[in-house]
Amino acid sequence: MKVGDLVTWHSNFFASAESGYASPGILLEDLGPSLFPHTPTRRYRILWADGRQTTEHSGYLKVISAAR
Q1: Is the preceding peptide bond at 40 cis, omega within 30 degrees of 0?
Q2: d(CA 46, CA 38)
Q3: Which of 3, 20, 25, 64 can pair with 48 through a Cys bridge, CB separation 3.0 to 4.6 Å?
Q4: Minimal CA–CA distance to 2: which of 67, 49, 60, 56?
């Protein structure tokens, strides 16, 4: 994933939370590795279609259109 990618929020475990995200979102910033040791994910700042910004772990994001 990289800045400029369009993403949706995606999780099998937290599927009910998916309705709380106004997809698509645009990846604004790579915030680096997870704060949890032993977790091989990265964190990203996302701007959602409803104007909200959230910080999400890469495991909950699915790229729908990659930036060039």
Answers
A1: no
A2: 23
A3: 25
A4: 67
pLDDT tens digits, 42-67: 999 999 999 999 999 898 899 999 98
Quickly tell me which residue has 């909200």 as its tokens.
52
Contact 31, 43 (CB under 8 A): yes
Give the Cα separation of 1 and 25 in Å (integer).
13
Sheet holding 6-9, edge to edge: 53-57, 42-48, 25-33, 6-9, 61-65
Task: Locate 55 and state its tokens.
Answer: 């910080």
pTM of the shown model? 0.80
SS3 of 20, please? helix
**What residue type is 58 in one-letter code?**
S
